[in-house]
Amino acid sequence: MKNSKQANGKMSPWILPALQASKITIAAGTIALFLTACGNDSSSSASEDSNKEEVSLNISKMTLREKVGQMFFVRPEALDTSIHWNEYSELPDYKLQHVNEIMLAVNKEYPIGGMILYAHNIVDETQLGDFIAEIRKLNGSPLLAIDEEGGRIARIANNGNFDVPKYESMAAIAESGDPNEAYKAAFTIGSYIKKYGFDIDYAPVADVNTNPENIVIGPRAFSDNPETAADFVVSYLNGLDSAGVIGTLKHFPGHGDVKTDTHLGYAETNKTWEEMLQCEMIPFKAGIKAGAQMIMTAHIAAPKITGNDLPATLSSVILQDKLRGELGFKGIIVTDAMDMGAITKQFGNAEAVIKSIQAGVDVVLCSREFTQVFDAVVKAVEKGEIKENRIDESVKRILALRTKK
Q1: Within a domain: residue 53?
Q2: How far apart are CA 244 and CA 249, in angstroms?
Q3: Which among 75, 82, 46, 37 is positioned nearest to 239, based on CA atoms?
Q4: Does 38 reside within a domain?
């Protein structure tokens, strides 16, 4: 990322320097990659060309199932096919906090590119360390992700068994008027999640909190002013970058002016693209300019932009025409969790994932019925419903993320 600043003030004593890149192997030794968190502006063009050649060579050695697997970032429960749940509230009861034999057996045929841990998957430092070590050995060499925004959404900081700093909210940080406070908070958060073994933080929230009736975003966003939000978003990204963690702008094209909760069902924005350019897009454009490597979609419809009720996650207009084309984003597009009501109450699980990939998504997060959906994607490629070069485009981005220094 660009324009990184040094944090002022004394840091907590537990903060560790960024971990050295570790060599990982995909699909039983097929692909050797060096995993690091963020880009380095000092990298020469020759090095970049070499990385591109390495990525292309690695893809040429991958089977279709290996490539498709890289696009799935899953909950641990996705690999345990004995677990069947309907409501999020049911998941903690399973206490899935280690890799078990069922997961290992399923994973032999279903490689994964990443895994996200939630609060119910985390007990304490010892258990988390053991769990992550087990996950690292899974087929696909999964990256580790977490939602650790600070404030209400913090899987580790809100666990009483971890002695790490806590933050009231991002809105409270922005009240300081000093974007460097966001840098320091993100560096602190990034440092402890890096220490515990995570590669990706699904933060910061780049939404502009313009709707007081919004029950989902609220103080998770920095501000109701787009310019203020942009300054703090960039500083937060830089803080994660300095800690060696990949940050993620969310939720594109902006969840701040939406009343309803996409966890529960349909949600939409009634804004035009021109209106969004004057508000919602300002933090996203600033984050892209600063070097953001990942952007998470929102499951909100934008009928005045797309002309239909498709969630942005499934819309090529939003993802290809606007995000890739007009805003010039070249990084990884990751879906919000595909087990949320805005998706599952409108679409079949396989149908939704196939539509999202066709629309331009690179990483599918938390699909329901993972094994069936995985097989459906493979079949869709074999039947030509998804072009294999569409899969290759995404896998190139994912492998490139692993090789950046």
Answers
A1: no
A2: 16
A3: 37
A4: no
pTM of the model: 0.87
- Judge whether 251 counts as a catalytic residue: no
Determine, yes or no, domain membership for 90. Answer: yes
For residue 18, what is the DSSP state? P
**Of the listed 201, 231, 257, 336, which one is catalytic?**
336
The model's pLDDT over 260-294, given as tens digits with 9 standing for 90+, comes to 656 656 788 999 999 999 999 999 999 999 999 99
Contact between residue 67 and residue 391 where contact means Cβ atoms under 8 Å apart: yes
| Degrees, nearest 5: CA angle 213-217-221 | 115
H helical segments located in 2-118: 45-60, 64-70, 101-109
The Cα-based distances of 256 to 8, 151, 210, 216, 251 in angstroms read 30, 17, 6, 8, 9
Question: Cα separation of 156 and 117, whole Å?
Answer: 10
Spatial CA neighbour of 276 closest among 208, 361, 205: 208
Element (H, E) at 403: helix 388-403
392 in a structural domain: no
Point out the catalytic residue in the list 263, 321, 375, 392. 263
Tell me the chain's radius of gyration from C-alpha atoms: 20
Cis peptide before 204 (omega within 30 of 0): yes
Neighbours of 185 (CB within 10 A): 25
Contacts of 254 (CB under 8 A, 6+ apart): 206, 207, 208, 269, 276, 279, 280, 281, 284, 298
Which of 1-15, 87-101, 102-116 shows the lowest mean pLDDT across its residues?
1-15
Dmax (CA) for the chain in angstroms is 58
137-178 pLDDT per residue, tens: 999 999 999 999 999 999 999 999 999 999 999 999 999 999
Range of the domain at 315: 70-387
Q: What is the CATH number of the domain that holds 128?
A: 3.20.20.300
DSSP per position, 159-195? STT------S-HHHHHTTS-HHHHHHHHHHHHHHHHH
**CA–CA dist 15, 263 (Å, integer):** 34
Instruction: Mark whether 263 is an active-site residue.
Output: yes
Split into its structural domains, the chain has a count of 1
